[in-house]
Amino acid sequence: MWKSMMETKPMKITDSKSMSLAKKTIITTALGLGLTFNVAFADDLELSTVFHVYVDGEHVGMVNSKEVIQSYIDDLIDEKEEQYTDYNFVAGEKVSYVEEKVFRPNTSNSDVIEVLDDELSIMVESYQVKIGEKVLGYFKDEETAKTTLDHFKAKYVDLEIIKQLEEQDQQDEEQEVSLSVGDSKIIDVQLSEEVSMSEEKVSPDEIITEEQGQKLLEKGTLEDKKHAVDEGEVLGAIAIKYDLEMEQLLELNPELDEDSVLQIGQELNVTAYQPFLNVIIKEEKLVEETINYESEVVETDDLYKGDTKVKQDGQEGKKEVHYVIEKVNGKQAKKEVVEETVTKEPVKKIVLKGTKVVPSRGSGQFQWPAVGGHITSHVGMRWGSHHKGIDIAGVSNRSILAADNGTVVSAGWDGGYGNKVVINHNNGYRTVYAHLSSINAKVGQTVTKGSQIGVMGSTGNSTGVHLHFEVYKNGSLQNPAGLF
User: Fold this and answer.
1) pLDDT at residue 34 in the model
2) How far is CA 459 from the centre of its chain?
3) How many CA atoms lie within 13 A of 129 on its CB side?
């Protein structure tokens, strides 16, 4: 073809310009023919498929089969899973492929595998648990992570209640709380910090168990803290307070030694564990409570001053109180009243208070100083000596009564008289009450006629239970028998 083309009739060239155009035509034609020959030759060649391998977006080489690389990665994973049977392993880096067809493939599977051997890590598929912005740890699966948190809550509330509340949340139902007196019901269990979970690839050495997670939650994180010394505190007590050994405390405070004298207010470096989070429980409770009664004092001149009398006994009331209680780590932190219903009104106690002034001056008209009874011995000579009063016995009640208004001038023991009370009636009369078993009056006290001042007895020189009663007028002994 090329020869026939060259043997065609020569072109007539008339000038240099025409000669240049002819040359260009011939060259262009020749190039076109050459390209045609090349394409025809390329179509006869066999194209090969190759795969460019990328690790986290970075090109590491070219292989002739994806399966070679994937098989290598699977072998690495199988090897790890034989060592750690409880974990699911994956490639730590993203391995991707780009397919290409080429005439002359320049692949090297072994070179790519050698690069992967250096750059590829086999990691565990884990669940990361974060408390706020702090990482608690990595768990082998979501179930272990959730169980760890639930068991931490279960330190303060039954697991069954936690599950019921979670089911209620999933159903998006708010159940009305119905309580009887004495009943309580937990309505919510929350954690004080936001808890988030995410899938992460980590080294198997970073995986923690449920037990380890529990300990971390209970112990919290170690944070720097300062302690201000209180009066009387010593280094040993401070170390114990923060769960430190003495050596640890001294290391934190190099300017101190075991014999250092601490000053009040001095700040020491200590370490303290701050909890990751708290368990907050809301509980509703219905209880019956007592309503205290009020007391009212009413003055009256029907009673002597200093005397009181209960006119109406007080009675406590009852009420049912519906509370919402918030507990933090099992300790009550807040208590609010939702509703209060009075079931029994309290009854006020009314006390009468005497305002009537007791006259200390007697009327001169005496009353019998005992409750019943009769005279067993009169004034006069008896057993060889002068008997100064009368003896009263055979009473129905042993109360000893003041014979008239007056002021107590003596109350106590007096030799042969035994327990004795003397009343000055401030009108010239004075009365004496002896042999009492007990005294109910005090010196200086104003007593009224008929009020109890003691109890009949047999103290002192006495032959039996009786009252020895004497009366004096202007200092002279009188015979009481003729004064009633």
Assistant:
1) 35
2) 64
3) 28
* Residues 369/467, Cβ–Cβ less than 8 Å: yes
Query: Which strands form 295-304's sheet, in the order they lie side by side?
Result: 295-304, 349-356, 308-312
Whole-angstrom distance, CA of residue 274 vs CA of residue 80: 37
Q: What is the three-class DSSP state of 114?
A: helix
- Quick one: 261 and 209 in the same domain? no
CA-to-CA distance for 400 and 431, rounded, in angstroms?
12
Low-confidence ranges of the chain (pLDDT < 50): 1-44
Q: Which residues are paired to 280 by β-bridges?
A: 190, 328
Per the structure, the complete domain to which residue 73 belongs is given by 48-120
Report strand pairing: 267-274 vs 279-291. Answer: unpaired
CA-CA distance, 38 to 256, in Å (whole number)? Answer: 91
Check: pTM over 0.85? Answer yes or no.
Answer: no
CA angle 389, 392, 397 (to 5 degrees): 145
Residue 17 lies in a domain: no
Same domain, 160 and 96: no
Task: Pick the last residue of a domain from 171, 195, 217.
Answer: 217
pLDDT of residue 174: 61
CA distances from 408 to 355, 420, 445 (A): 21, 11, 5
For 413, the enclosing helix (H) or strand (E) is: strand 406-413
Describe the chain by its helix, strand, coil percentages, rounded to 5.
Answer: 25, 45, 30
For 218-330, where are the E strands, in sequence order?
221-228, 267-274, 279-291, 295-304, 308-312, 317-328
Q: How far apart are CA 438 and CA 9, in angstroms?
A: 170
Strand extents, DSSP E, 42-170:
48-55, 58-63, 89-91, 95-102, 122-131, 134-139
188 strand-pairing partners = 282
Q: How far is CA 108 from the centre of its chain?
A: 66
